[in-house]
Specification:
homodimer; DNA-binding; 12 helices; mainly alpha; 2 domains; Arc Repressor Mutant, subunit A; Tetracycline Repressor, domain 2
DNA sequence: GTCTATATGGCGATAGAC
DNA sequence: GTCTATCGCCATATAGAC
């Protein structure tokens, strides 16, 4: 990216991200990754022993994109409304930078449900710790009584799904005008926050 | 299903649904579909000329699953709140019957964005006609001023995403207990409706 | 480290017997 | 209509020169 003269191993990983994230494991070809990286196909095997190994490197990267920010925001010392606003805002921003990641993860986990476990353990996120924040907010009367899991899942749904379903939605509702759909998604930083807050206020 | 002695062509289509919906076009093998149907591989080519043709038959089926019910409910003569309740309820019910369909459609449209157009035309759904219903409800003061597209997209997000992300959510929040997650999704017929209504009431 | 050439296996598709 | 056998291609992976 910034570094034009990057070493081969990194060039390969970048190229592999571009291809695997868009087309998934089964839909990707090693030749295509090599072309994307402007290197010879056999170099892929020199640096990463197999397609599977290269794929796993990309998968681990993908999972990490969507973990770290969450914890810090939710556990910070702010009113719950402000936490939701920050979460939605930063999550949608990440999705603009990595729009293919969610569908990629969903797709590949159906193929092999175990690939997630390892990547998730490394991240050190404790689901219960997150949910407890919402339980406390309910106790303090900041939000209405509602299963915190619903809050988290609904928030993730409202952020992620519009990116995952972009090709469909763009076609059906936006005449396949990509810019228009992107502007619509940008505005959702505000509208999703508003939607969430109205839905869970006491 | 009910008919044990079904003809070969139908057996093939059923088997193809099972395989394609779970693994997608690139991840599926003709041999696997043949095994699933308990027939010889070359019979697939006898009834459907190619893998692509067989796939398209499955894709058209998938799209149709999620079209017809929508229109009737949204355009019916009922209060908007009741429409939303019925929509969420029936949509989640369809998802219980065909949990792989949304992710399948999303996945394959990324591969080839044109496959949707044909299947969508046949269905005869007019997006503007649907959105107009919400504009009218806003004019009558039944709901707060909000872009109808947000309502539709949010409703679809809240229904679909929890099914698409099932393998992840189940693992992270339910100790990989499938029954528990399914009961949670069943309850969402009520909680999503409630969530939606609170979010858009005037 | 990087290349060309090639091995090896799998998959979609077809030919042809019955 | 259904089967067996096989073709031809393409993809992963490796061998070996430089």
């Amino acid at each position: 990216m910034t570094q034009e003269e990057t070493n081969t191993e990194e060039k390969i990983l970048e190229a592999a991200k571009n291809v695997f994230l868009k087309k998934g494991m089964a839909g990707s070809r090693m030749q295509e990754i090599a072309d994307e990286a402007n290197i010879n196909k056999s170099l892929l095997h020199y640096y990463y022993r197999s397609k599977e190994k290269l794929f796993l490197a990309v998968f681990r990267f993908a999972v990490k994109q969507f973990i770290p920010g969450i914890r810090d925001i939710i556990l910070s010392e702010k009113p719950i409304v402000r936490k939701i606003e920050m979460f939605v805002d930063s999550y949608i921003e990440i999705l603009f930078q990595h729009p293919f990641v969610p569908i990629f993860i969903i797709q590949e986990i159906q193929r092999d449900p175990d690939v997630l476990s390892g990547a998730l353990m490394e991240s050190g996120v404790d689901p219960q710790e997150i949910l407890q924040v919402f339980y406390d907010a309910i106790d303090r009367g900041e939000i209405r009584p509602i299963n915190p899991l619903e809050i988290m899942l609904n928030m993730l749904s409202l952020c992620i799904f519009p990116f995952a379903a972009k090709p469909v939605m763009q076609r059906v509702f936006f005449d396949n005008n990509e810019d228009a759909y992107m502007r619509f998604l940008e505005k959702r930083k505000k509208t999703v926050t508003e939607f969430m807050i109205k839905a869970i206020k006491p």
